[in-house]
């Protein structure tokens, strides 16, 4: 495994970690984006801190200590330890305003760095996806729909707190059976064909000659073997990520960005496909985790691997 670079953010040009076609930087993603040349990134696939509050140092400390805070630490079920979940229902009006401002700023920083026709895929949550979508659109990105990840999680479906027996037939919220991934594109000034010839972007790579890329993807929860390699609360499975990452570089060339790299699962998916990828992670512990997890996740064989 390559040695880790120093973590001094004044040395931004030097990756914190590299593996095959993937590079990881330890930095603030907004600052890092500002320093990148225009028209240098061909796609963005990310699972951002769309609650913002849950990834502050104080809340991460509570999560790592198993004390909860903004994070809901579910009990074990059938002998399996369930992953923590951020409590989006607890977000206050000022925090929701902060979320809107953050994603507007992210879109504004990201837009000039993308080549025309570059796709942006952002994981969201049904409770806040409307704010994220509005903010990215306000920044100038063109909404292109939504990718539905069909997956049953442990979110929702609970009876009223401290009144389970009184209201046994009531659920406070529906049990979650899907996850929205917002789809955007940087506007083009030419046709898709012309943009593909010049930039290699503008469309989505088909699954096969007879099957286009679809906006509904069946997905299981992240397998325990992957969580053992990358202990991150928002880890998404390689089987799902590789399908999305493969689609966003329609010609198979270019660079995929993940500005909130976490444990490096998007970078691992790109490395498994042979795509160039760059990730940015602010939290040092997660950056160190990613440096170990990326090679291991990239080497996994999954059924949906293209």
TrEMBL record:
Gene3D superfamilies: Vaccinia Virus protein VP39
The DNA methylase N-4/N-6 domain, residue ranges: 203-291
Pfam families according to UniProt: N6_N4_Mtase
Top-level enzyme category: transferase
Molecular function GO labels: DNA binding; N-methyltransferase activity
PROSITE patterns (alphabetical): N6_MTASE (PS00092)
Enzyme Commission number(s) from the entry: 2.1.1.-
Name of the protein this chain belongs to: Methyltransferase
